[in-house]
Design a protein that fits this description.
The chain is of the alpha+beta class. It contains 3 helices and 7 strands. A hairpin with a 7-residue loop joins β5 and β6. The radius of gyration is 15 Å and the shape is globular.
């Protein structure tokens, strides 16, 4: 699969610790959107986030790995970046180290990850980006 790059004009939205909104599809085909912490891996060109393998959303992603993800600029809410992609990898995170990476990014500190035994890292390969305004 060819690598799809985000527009340079909106890279800051991927690099800043902003909340993203993850869109998935439920088992009955309905859309579901949840706020998420995330990490943009610029070198690999992928988006990563964490979840547990016990939640409904994880089961939805296993059944239908296509997702939508949106980040709104809090300084200009008319400026946003949408990403469409596919969950290409699910890795166990039994120590919770990736969750702690996100804790540090978003909160500035880390704490014990009580659900670390069921934590997973989800990697999304972008298939397209849409930025506004362009």
């Amino acid at each position: 699969m060819d690598r799809v790059a985000p527009p340079a004009s909106h890279l800051d939205l991927l690099e800043r610790p902003l909340f993203g909104h993850l869109g998935t599809v439920t088992s009955d085909g309905a859309p579901l959107v949840n706020p998420m912490w995330f990490l943009w891996d610029a070198e690999a060109g992928v988006l990563k986030f964490t979840h547990t393998n016990q939640r409904h959303n994880f089961r939805y992603l296993k059944r239908e790995p296509r997702v939508a993800f949106e980040i709104v600029d809090p300084d200009d809410q008319y400026r946003y970046l949408q990403l469409r992609g596919v969950v290409e990898r699910v890795e166990d995170d039994p120590t919770g180290v990736f969750y702690q990476t996100l804790q540090q990014r978003y909160r500035g500190y880390t704490s014990e990850v009580k659900d670390r035994a069921v934590r997973v890292i989800l990697t999304v390969r972008p298939t397209g980006f849409k930025a506004r305004p362009v």
